[in-house]
């Protein structure tokens, strides 16, 4: 395996994982204040009403598909008696649908961001960078799906290449060569996704990690004691907060 | 019985002249920042009028507050928890900035840098959101003093409701320009809908004083609180992406100082003090079947601070002695529960609001005087209150879920007080039958008069400072307050007026610096 390939398929994944995990820990510790969706709904609601759920729900389906596709070995589904044809038909139709929803959603969201003057003015450079990585990942992923289905180029069973590679990374026994056997679209998608994970903790994407599931299980009214926090003016300076001068 | 303390406010609307000093000083203290240009933690709206944000009382649109479901249980009007989580990607009830107004500044720079020319340079309005020139079409007080005329005023949700129910006579009377001011802050409800709607659990009610706050570190910007609050008093900071709201100036209250809006109120119409209430019964009271019984249910939650049982239970739940004394001297308790002249704003939202209002009587007195009657003679006044049922219906929609009797009783007490005190002031024999006619005795009506008309600083604001055990925490506030009594008789280091500037801890994250107004 040539050194660029080692770098891409053996080193980069771990850099991505480390950056993602450590970045999130750092962000959570030092910058909770900016850990938010930075919602722009107050500026514009009509387009968001369609685009927001379309993108997010589509993305959830895409993520679900990735978890199944990457983590469940082919031998497992073989044992269940699921044929390759049936598996791929399911994966392509469901994954394709989710992909279309996600792409449509993000197209609308970007259109909204560009055309609504208020939303555009509130878009930071950080946001724009993040959009490039996110859209690149989504586009590469969609074309990979199409190629695996044989619509674009040769049909390809990613469960013999990408899947094992991903599992080899996660089990700390990296086999970069698995990935090298996959078509270009998959490799571009993987690199784009790893880059996205690297910048993830430093963008607004962090809000994805605070999905408020606990809301369903807590009492309606929350009480907190002043005792548990230090009182006004006296509390310890929180990391990332400027000292108040008076 | 779980006794909890709640800091509450009463506003005497008779005294409000609509000067907006409270709004301006509040803005200067708390929301003079990018991202909150449009936020008015305190606003003063003219009623009848649309209010701020526009038509916030129309709960069919933004679905604020609670409802009682068919099984007799409380439910957020905006839907179940699961439904809220599903609509997290785009809150369908979320308000748009246009429901408030698009904040702007002026191109002042042009006034001094414009090249010499034929025309005088002008400062055009520029949007603070887009940076582009804009047309100013609405703001926080566009319909101030009935501005905009009937076209604007008719959109008042309460007027619209009354127009459905009552005869046209109502409408005509309103066209004779009946008007009063309604200053509004966060209600710091006993049963806050915003807290219940917050998916992150960032919003909470402080155990010690019941102040409802947003934890800025924990808020994730899901913006459910904005629509869930029926009073629309949670503002979305569009720069930080987090919710912010009136804090009841807790850094000041903890020192025993009144809120900025109270301190600077020109009409001295605000009262601050403690309520003791039974926290175990809140949900039950808020789920009272008939909307019109909600006011009474809310009153029943408030416990008598002189009752031995209550005091015992209060001590058991850790309320300190000085707080109990403050609760006994609380002006808000007296106005709301003892004299029953202060009413909650929109009890039908079932949030158990803790900012109470003494409804205005003045328009009635003025009308009587104009028509050649003695406006303050008891008989005339009592008669007039009944005759002028129209404003009563409006007031009742605001303060008692439409129960006119509640508002009427309040106004009768206020007019009785005027008549009774007039006899005393004119050196005539006081007439005990006047207080008796409204179910009061001479002593209590005199005390009520002292509280409403004399309204000394130390009587209006009975604010126990933060826990003595925590006094050390106050050390780095600039001076040690150990042993300084800032309580009832505030002749402490700050004097009767504010005196020295009080350090207020508004923490600035460094990013705010880069986001200063363009």
Automatic annotation (TrEMBL), chain B:
GO molecular function per UniProt: 4 iron, 4 sulfur cluster binding; electron transfer activity; metal ion binding; nitrate reductase activity
Record GO biological process: anaerobic respiration; nitrate metabolic process
Keywords linked to the UniProt accession: 4Fe-4S, Electron transport, Iron, Iron-sulfur, Metal-binding, Repeat, Transport
Gene3D superfamilies recorded: 3.30.70.20, nitrate reductase domain like
Record keyword Nucleotide-binding present: no
Residues in 4Fe-4S ferredoxin-type domain copies: 7-35, 177-208, 210-239
Pfam families: Fer4_11, Nitr_red_bet_C
Main subcellular location of this protein, as a coarse class: other
Gene Ontology CC: one annotated term: membrane
Localisation per UniProt entry: Cell envelope
Cofactor: [3Fe-4S] cluster; [4Fe-4S] cluster
The name this protein goes by in its record: Unannotated protein
């Amino acid at each position: 395996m040539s050194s660029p390939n080692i770098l891409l398929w053996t080193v980069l994944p771990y850099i991505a994982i480390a950056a993602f995990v450590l970045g999130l820990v750092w962000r959570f510790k030092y910058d909770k204040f900016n850990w938010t969706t930075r919602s722009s709904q107050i500026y514009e609601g009509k387009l968001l009403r369609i685009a927001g759920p379309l993108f997010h729900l589509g993305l959830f389906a895409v993520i679900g598909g990735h978890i199944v596709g990457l983590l469940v070995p082919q031998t497992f589904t073989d044992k269940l008696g699921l044929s390759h044809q049936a598996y791929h038909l399911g994966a392509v139709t469901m994954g394709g649908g989710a992909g279309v929803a996600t792409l449509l959603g993000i197209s609308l969201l970007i259109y909204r961001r560009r055309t609504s003057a208020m939303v555009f003015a509130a878009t930071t450079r950080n946001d724009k960078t993040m959009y490039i990585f996110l859209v690149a990942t989504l586009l590469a992923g969609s074309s990979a799906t199409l190629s695996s289905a044989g619509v674009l180029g040769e049909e390809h069973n990613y469960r013999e290449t990408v899947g094992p590679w991903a599992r080899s990374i996660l089990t700390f026994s990296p086999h970069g060569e698995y990935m090298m056997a996959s078509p270009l679209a998959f490799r571009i998608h993987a690199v784009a996704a790893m880059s996205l994970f690297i910048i993830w903790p430093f963008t607004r994407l962090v809000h994805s990690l605070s999905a408020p599931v606990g809301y369903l299980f807590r009492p309606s009214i929350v009480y907190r004691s002043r005792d548990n926090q230090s009182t006004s003016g006296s509390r310890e300076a929180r990391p990332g907060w400027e000292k108040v001068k008076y | 019985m779980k006794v909890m303390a709640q800091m509450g406010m009463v506003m005497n609307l008779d005294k409000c002249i609509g000067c907006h000093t409270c709004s301006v000083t509040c803005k200067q203290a708390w929301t003079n920042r990018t991202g909150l240009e449009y936020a008015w933690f305190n606003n003063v709206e003219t009623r009848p009028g649309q209010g701020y944000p526009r038509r916030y009382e129309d709960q069919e649109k933004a679905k604020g507050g609670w409802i009682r479901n068919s099984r007799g249980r409380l439910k957020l009007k905006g839907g179940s928890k699961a439904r809220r989580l599903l609509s997290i990607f785009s809150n369908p009830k979320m308000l748009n900035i246009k429901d408030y107004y698009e904040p702007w500044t002026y191109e002042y720079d042009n006034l001094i840098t414009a090249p010499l020319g034929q025309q005088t340079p002008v400062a055009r309005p520029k949007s603070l959101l887009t940076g582009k020139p804009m047309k100013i079409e609405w703001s926080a007080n566009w319909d101030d003093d009935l501005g905009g005329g009937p076209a604007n005023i008719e959109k008042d949700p309460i007027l619209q409701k009354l127009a459905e129910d009552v005869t046209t006579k109502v409408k005509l009377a309103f066209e004779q320009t009946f008007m009063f001011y309604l200053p509004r802050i966060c209600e710091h409800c006993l049963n806050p809908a915003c807290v219940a709607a917050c998916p992150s659990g960032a919003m909470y009610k402080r155990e010690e004083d019941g102040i409802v706050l947003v934890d800025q570190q924990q808020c994730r910007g899901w913006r459910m609180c904005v629509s869930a609050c029926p009073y629309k008093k949670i503002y979305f900071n569009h720069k930080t992406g987090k919710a912010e709201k009136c804090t009841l100036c807790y850094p000041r209250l903890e020192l025993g100082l009144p809120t900025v809006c109270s301190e600077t109120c020109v009409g001295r119409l605000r009262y601050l003090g403690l309520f003791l209430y039974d926290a175990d019964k809140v949900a039950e009271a808020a789920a009272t079947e008939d909307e019109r019984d909600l006011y009474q249910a809310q009153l029943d939650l408030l416990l008598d601070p002189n009752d031995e049982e209550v005091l015992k239970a209060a001590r058991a739940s850790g309320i300190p002695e000085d707080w109990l004394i403050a609760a006994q001297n609380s002006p808000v308790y007296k106005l709301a529960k003892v004299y029953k002249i202060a009413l909650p704003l929109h009890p039908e939202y079932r949030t158990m609001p803790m900012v109470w209002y003494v409804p205005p009587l003045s328009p009635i007195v003025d009308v009587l005087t104009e028509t050649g009657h003695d406006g303050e003679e008891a008989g005339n006044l009592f008669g007039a209150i009944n005759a002028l049922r129209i404003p009563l219906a409006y007031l009742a929609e605001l303060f008692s879920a439409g129960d006119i009797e509640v508002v009427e009783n309040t106004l009768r007490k206020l007019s009785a007080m005027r008549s009774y005190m007039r006899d005393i002031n004119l050196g005539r024999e006081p007439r005990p039958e006047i207080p008796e006619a409204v179910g009061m005795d001479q002593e209590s009506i005199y005390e009520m008069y002292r509280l409403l008309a004399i309204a000394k600083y130390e009587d209006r604001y009975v604010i126990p400072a933060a826990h003595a055990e925590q006094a050390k925490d106050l050390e780095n506030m600039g001076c040690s307050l150990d042993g300084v009594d800032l309580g009832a008789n505030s002749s402490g280091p700050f004097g009767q007026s504010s005196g020295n500037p009080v350090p207020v801890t508004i923490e600035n994250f460094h990013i705010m610096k880069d986001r200063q107004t363009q």
